[in-house]
Specification:
Helices cover 0% and strands 62% of the residues. It has no helices and eight strands. The protein has strands at 3-6, 9-12, 23-31, 35-42, 45-53, 58-63, 66-71, 73-74. The chain is globular and about 35 Å long. The N and C termini lie far apart (29 Å).
């Protein structure tokens, strides 16, 4: 509902329930490949997100219907 990591891509809010769409956030969810994900949304659209890993590297993400490649941030305390 909030995060899907499959086929080398991390999707944010792929199936957010209508009851949760108005506003929300999560932090610390884990995605395949050792990524940690934080995200906030309003009116069903992602407003902010952070993808982090022990070693920063490129990752493909899908946000608000668009796919792009970003570089993950370094996880704190590493």
């Amino acid at each position: 509902m909030l995060l899907q990591s499959h086929a080398g891509e991390i999707a944010l809010l792929p199936a957010c329930p209508k009851a949760w769409a108005k506003q929300g956030s999560f932090s610390g969810l884990r995605a395949r490949g050792g990524f940690t994900v934080d995200c906030a949304w309003k009116d069903g659209k992602v407003t902010t997100y952070r993808i982090a890993s022990v070693v920063p590297r490129e990752v493909r993400i899908r946000v608000n219907g668009q796919s792009k490649t970003i570089k993950s941030e370094r996880l704190a305390n590493n």
